[in-house]
Design goal:
The complex is a heterodimer of chains A (261) and B (269). Chain A is globular, with a radius of gyration of 19 Å. With 261 residues, chain A is mostly helical. Chain A contains 14 helices and two strands, in the order ααββαααααααααααα. Chain A has one domain. In chain A, helix 3 packs across helix 9 and helix 9 packs antiparallel against helix 10. The two termini of chain A are 34 Å apart. Chain B has 269 residues and is mainly alpha-helical. Chain B is built from twelve helices and no strands. Chain B is globular and about 65 Å long. The two termini of chain B are 26 Å apart. Classes of the chains: A mainly alpha (261), B mainly alpha (269). The interface between A and B is large, with 39 and 36 residues.
């Protein structure tokens, strides 16, 4: 409860700071929107030539891509801006100021910043999602929608785990900017239908780094109803990934030697 | 002029040292660079599961395109040059550079070449490894690769990417933060440049329009030329447009630099 209060306080402070630069907000909404349009254009080109990909028709694929976009935008708004500051905090020794505070450092770091722009793009993703669901003739119940949102939250956990693990490398590597590139590259996997993958690729990205489940499980739940097997697997692997990433962060923290490291 | 030419290898060496100073950062970057090819393999594998061709492409053809794209990226895509130039202008770090008897454009070109060389070196192993993995699973169209058509197109793409980067980052003379502008153009380059999919998969009228834009000559044209997908006529016309756009952006960069310098003020440095 105390952490929730602390998070709300951090959010209020971060929102005040963000709203000082309103023009910046609109520009970044346009930038993020452009990247989303790219994904939709890609689908447009593919489905110009084919009827379905791995059993996913056009509108189903839009549900998958918009779900992925929704998870990304929520993550980019609330958790990513703080996490990406970790390499700089380690390099400059400013992590000291976080460590002296009476709260878990991983929590303080990941909730320290907020970006409002991605929330607007999340809204656009939801609008596209609703249109695609309507196009499929689906009428999900309130319970199904709540379940979908719970799975989106589980997707956030996987994003958190992957980025936390990557940025924690900054305890060993002086300049770790490339980890962000790694994060964006890795999450290309989340846009692929799970049925498209096979062999070691499917095993690695389902069990070790569960990226193939992040958007697939919520989207499939919305389209085809609840799927107990994949959902259990998703929740378990997401939880495990989050535990691993926090342990990895704490392991790295033991190497941290303040401003002199 | 000869003094300028003598200075360029030193700047190139400086750029190499800067790039290689953080080896792990560089190594990670190159490792991650190979992943998109694997993702493409999986996705396009599913697209081709029930058909032999999509547009003019077979699965092997499209994967060869994406593999060649990795090489084009390594040779031509600027890494951090845009943000470096922007920082130099914004933070007044231009002062020591302006004092040197070396044109800024040439100075940045030498650093760009150093960055590309270092990155190409670092990307060699992961790219070769992923190429090897994919070629074990299927027969890539590597025998059709045409270095004679590809090399001039690659050089033109590097020149075009460098000149466009220069123009964008020189906007820092007028704008406080150009990162949004840079990312917006990245998005255009990815979509209209053929980074996301080969442009000839677009409906023909759209393809005809996109071929006139500079972005097509940053990725799609050099990749298609290397893959041997272009007729001689299309290759020649493409080269003319590519070098034409590169020349246009170089001239534009020259005027932006001249105009920007008149606004530039910095103390100390």
């Amino acid at each position: 409860m105390q952490l929730l209060r602390l998070w709300l306080l951090q959010l209020r402070y971060a929102a005040t700071r963000e709203l000082m630069f309103r023009a910046n907000f609109f520009v970044w909404v346009a930038v993020e929107l452009a990247w989303f349009v790219i994904q939709l254009a890609f689908l447009g080109v593919i489905y110009h030539h084919v009827e379905e990909v791995a059993g996913w028709r056009r509108n189903e694929m839009i549900v998958l891509v918009t779900t992925n976009q929704l998870v990304i935008q929520i993550f980019t708004a609330f958790l990513m801006p703080g996490l990406t500051k970790l390499p700089e905090l380690v390099r400059t020794g400013k992590l000291d100021f976080v460590l002296v505070k009476p709260a878990p450092p991983a929590f303080l770091i990941s909730t320290s910043h907020l970006e409002i722009g991605p929330l607007a793009n999340g809204g656009i993703a939801v609008a596209m999602l609703v249109a695609a669901v309507g196009g499929l003739g689906l009428h999900p119940s309130w319970g199904e929608m709540a379940w979908y949102l719970a799975l989106v939250f589980a997707g956030l956990l996987v994003h958190y785990a992957v980025l936390m693990t990557l940025v924690s490398l900054s305890f060993w590597i002086i300049q770790a900017e490339s980890v962000l590139l790694g994060y964006y590259t890795l999450f290309q996997v989340a846009r692929i239908p799970r049925e498209a993958a096979s062999g070691w690729f499917r095993v690695v990205f389902t069990f070790a780094i569960p990226l193939l489940l992040v958007a697939n499980v919520p989207a499939a739940t919305l389209i085809r109803g609840r799927q107990p097997g994949p959902t259990t697997l998703f929740l378990l692997s997401g939880l495990l990934a989050a535990v691993f990433s926090t342990a990895f962060f704490l392991f790295g923290l033991r190497r941290y030697q303040s401003a002199s490291s | 002029m000869s003094a300028v030419l003598r200075a360029l290898p030193a700047v190139f060496s400086l750029g190499l040292q800067q790039q290689l100073a953080y080896r792990w950062n560089y190594f990670l970057r190159s490792v991650f660079s190979a992943l998109p090819l694997l993702v493409s393999w999986v996705f396009w594998g599913a697209v081709f599961r029930e058909r032999a061709t999509v547009g003019n492409y077979t699965l092997a053809g499209i994967l060869t395109y994406y593999a060649v794209l990795l090489v084009v990226e390594a040779v031509c895509q600027p890494s951090d040059d845009d943000f470096q130039i922007s920082r130099e202008i914004r933070e007044g770090m231009l002062n020591p550079i302006l004092l040197r008897p070396l044109p800024y454009g040439l100075y940045r070109a030498a650093l760009f070449a150093a960055g590309r060389s270092a990155y190409l070196l670092a990307a060699l192993i992961p790219v070769s490894l992923s190429l090897f993995l994919v070629s074990r699973a299927m027969d890539l169209n590597l025998a059709r690769l045409s270095l004679g058509y590809g090399a001039p197109a690659l050089l033109g793409a590097a020149l075009l990417q460098f000149s466009l980067t220069l123009c964008l980052s020189l906007c820092s003379f007028w704008l406080l933060d150009v990162s949004a502008l840079i990312f917006l153009v990245y998005a255009l380059e990815f979509l209209a440049g053929g980074h996301v999919f080969p442009l000839d998969l677009l409906p023909p009228p759209l393809f005809a329009v996109v071929r006139l834009l500079p972005f097509a000559y940053e990725y799609w044209f050099p990749a298609a030329a290397l893959c041997g997908n272009l007729s001689e006529g299309a290759w020649k016309a493409g080269l003319c447009l590519q070098y034409g756009w590169a020349f246009f952006f170089l001239v534009l960069a020259h005027f932006l630099w001249k105009a920007g310098l008149r606004r530039f003020t910095a103390a100390g440095g």
